[in-house]
Amino acid sequence: MNLSDQQSDAFVVEGVSKVFGGFRALTSVSLEVSHGEVRAIIGPNGAGKTTFVNIVSGVFRPTSGRIALGGVDITSFSPQRRARLGLARTFQITSLFRGMTVAEHMELAVRGADTSGRARAELLELMGLADLAHREVNTLSHGDQRVLEMAMALVLGPTFLLLDEPTAGMSVAETDRMIRLIGDRLRGKIGVIIIEHDMNVVTQTSDIVTVLAAGAVAASGPPATVLSDPMVKELYLGNAASH
Ligand SMILES: Nc1ncnc2c1ncn2[C@@H]1O[C@H](COP(=O)(O)OP(=O)(O)OP(=O)(O)O)[C@@H](O)[C@H]1O
Ligand SMILES: [Mg+2]
What we know:
alpha/beta, 6-stranded mixed sheet, 4-stranded antiparallel sheet, 10 strands, 24% strand, globular, binds adenosine-5'-triphosphate, binds magnesium ion
């Protein structure tokens, strides 16, 4: 694979490896996510999923390999520079400020960029938060807080969104809402890369599932095919109890 041959609007990871000290956390991981696709990344504990997200978002540099977004090699770009190019992410840990309202958080997320108030209002509408705009965030349900974090990540109009376990700690109803948001509202509009432990979410939102195991891609394909693969089931044996 050659970065310059890629479809210009794709997100491309090419031969990425990461070594921590003497430990190989990722070994030559390659994948390509097209614009509008929802890609799930799954794998047992310690497979390298969080390491992958941190490399893709620019928190860590890969030991080797390259990452490209829209035909631009972003391997050495800071997280901020990646975000300006259209790669947004949410974090596993809630990062909202008590006492500030939903609308104020949306202002904060703009970070000085030139976006209209109307665009922000439309985004709150899309995410089902419009009625909560003037509520202080600490009065929101856990689910609404996570959805607000997604709305904040979307405010600059990214072309790709990285979601690190968006349904962690959610009730069944909140998870169903997240499934609809990702599977119905975002799918087809932007590329989404979702790290997810809940196979129900994976099946209902993603076009393609990539399985990481021991730092390498073990399988990749449509959810129905990948999740019924005996080799993939085997990877989760003895691990299922933790998720
Ligand atoms: N900063 C680091 N220094 C050393 N080793 C690390 C570091 N970060 C991760 N690792 C190791 O790399 C491997 C992959 O970790 P990672 O957190 O990416 O896995 P994961 O797939 O996200 O697991 P989980 O499902 O438990 O969240 C683990 O063995 C972990 O101990
Ligand atoms: Mg992890």
